[in-house]
Amino acid sequence: MNTTQVAALREAAAESVNCDGLRAAADGDEYSLETPEDRREGLSEEAFREAAAAHADYVTNWYVWSRDRPEDRRAFLRWVEGAGDRSVPKRYAALREGTARTWGELRITASLGADGERRYDLRHAADAEREVVDLSVHDDPLAARRLSKHDDDGRYRPLSTAPTLQTGWVFPGLSANELVRAVDGFYPATVANWYRERTGDLDVSDWRGTAERQTGIYDIVDELSSEQVEWIAESCCVDSQCLKRRQWDEHGGEGGELDVPRGDGEFPCREPCSLVIAAARKWTTLEREESREYTFELTPSEKEQVEAIVDAVAEGRTDEIREADVYEGANRYRARFLRAKRFDEAGNLSGAPTDDEDGDEDESEE
Amino acid sequence: MSQALVIVAHGSHLNPGSSTPTYDHADRIRASGAFDEVREAFWKEEPSFREALRTVAADEVFVVPLFVSEGYFTEQVIPRELRLDEWNVAAWDSDGTSASHATLEAEDVGKTVHYCGPVGTHDAMADVLVQRAESITDDPDVGEGFGLAVVGHGTERNENSAKAIHYHADRLRERDRFEEVRALFMDEDPEVDDVEEFFESDDVIVVPLFIADGFHTQEDIPEDMGITDDYRTGYDVPAEVGGTRIWYAGAVGTEPLMADVILERTADAGADVGEAIDRVRADATGAAGD
Fold first, then answer.
1. CATH classification of B125-253, choosing from 3.30.930.10, 3.40.50.300, 3.40.50.2300, 3.40.50.1400?
2. Is A146 in CB contact (< 8 Å) with chain B?
3. What's the confidence (pLDDT) of residue B155?
């Protein structure tokens, strides 16, 4: 605690202070200061300073949270240190040790700097136990935008809230404003939408409204049926694909709710994103096709292998299947064997053309 | 009163480099201190146009589209997604290249939005094209003996796209700095494929009026012009095609001076940018400290 903070508190007492258990008031030249543990009245300026010194944690806590800051950022920063759930003494004890929260794949650890100022360590949750020196150290919160662009394998991440955030970096000493900026760099707008949801002000845009709003090449996505929308959500919007918690449904009316789990994420998804809409456009054109019957010859194991391959791709597991693990249906050698045996020269499964004999359109699409 | 700048750009689901110029220009403007907050927003990346305005604290926001021309995105998509109340393209009162700004309210956040015309049609783009010519030739006085081709995509959905190319070509021709200035296109005549046939000069600088380097500027145009057989092997600068030396500059949008155009747009719309334009210009042209 420093003298500026105490002077600020004494000045604020004139208008009365009430913050996290600290109350301060002034009546002419007399001051009062109260915490849940203590109450002092009729204080002179000098006695007020002494009382403040006796409750320094309350005073620095007030000072930190009396700072002018947009409501959503303030609420987020208070959530990070559990300000709503813990008394000042308990919170300060936790802050002295470092108190951590998880936001998507981010781990945010709040601790105390000089005079109660908060410092934040931001890193990937998977790096929680690693030493700072073993990580690449950053101090510019804007670096988050670029770190979020690629996963650990160097592949582009078009969806910032996909559970593929790269590891190996740390922002060890961010200020409160810098923390918010960095979090917004990794997961844009999540703080703003989380706050809107907490205050009952989240403007959810359901599938129907979002689809009908589209123009240009996306104009067609409103053709999709309820069942197809369900498949889209199952494909793109579950926790294994995106860490936002889906709050939109097919529509807001009766029967408009989708059955797919919404996810357990901390922050909400308020409308189908651009990736979903772009994928939906492709599905809209694909789903215009009618099913037809094909005759394929497969052994039972080959049928299961086809299923295993689809499953491995859908779960993003192909990289995990070891080169010589021929017990896995989606193993590369197994897939090559199946192709050698069952594909004809034109790449048709079991020699069955995709279109009727006279049709030559099977490879026409893109 | 605090003011924010939001730069809105296309972005990409496939190309990680698409957002890079947007970030670079935003960083340069941020460093100039002209705005309390500077944010980027994207059609294909995040924050989306829909959610960008809620990430800034300021009540007054200047929105500048990092697009080359007035058209589908600037007239329909961006105002719709930003939820600009009562937007009508007539508010810009534009002839296709003359949009400056319109002031509206964004419904979901209750902020005042000064919605600016795209960077691509601003007069200051001519300076960026020249700067690009200077940097690709590494000659601050380049002009004599050189032709300059400004390359656009072609009409596609909107004739304004070609208008913007012609507009800058005309203005650059009036400056009388280059021997010849031509507007060329990827998908319509006169086509960039035959670039050397449109110029008398032995040296021709080719600058695509594109925001970011990508498929068109890095693959299509180099192969179409014949400065490479296979874009993957790269191309020489200059490269000789039919006796003409082609100085291919790549997307003009990556030029640092683009940050100046963004600032000019906001200043035209009433932003208080102080000395920032001078600072950004000096920084982007390497004249700092002179």
1. 3.40.50.1400
2. yes
3. 66
Strands A245-246 and A268-269: parallel
8 Å CB contact of B57 and A188: no
pLDDT of B188 over the 90 cut: no
What is the arithmetic mean of pLDDT over A77-81?
A: 98
Check pLDDT > 60 for residue A361. Answer: no
Query: Tokens 């319109």 appear where?
Result: B102
Residue A184 three-state SS: helix
A137 in contact with B at a CB cutoff of 8 Å? Answer: no
pLDDT single digits (tens) B160-185: 888 899 999 999 999 999 999 999 99
Nearest to B48 among A73, A191, A273 (CB): A273
Q: What is the ipTM score, two decimals?
A: 0.92
CB contact under 8 A, A213 and B47: no
Q: What is the CATH number of the domain that holds A156?
A: 3.30.1360.190
B16:A156 CB<8 A: yes
Q: Does A143 touch chain B (CB under 8 A)?
A: no
Q: Where are the domains of chain B?
A: 3-121+255-285, 125-253
Q: B11 Cβ partners below 8 Å, 6+ apart?
A: B18, B19, B22, B42, B43, B44, B45
pLDDT band at A356 (very low <50, low <70, confident <90, very high): confident
% of chain A with per-residue pLDDT over 70: 97
Of B82, B42, B56, B66, nearest to B3 by C-alpha is B56
Q: Which domain holds residue A190?
A: 71-197
Token pair for A192: 């703003």
Nearest residue, CB atoms, A274 vs list B23, B43, B55: B43
CA angle (A73, A78, A83) in 5-degree steps: 165
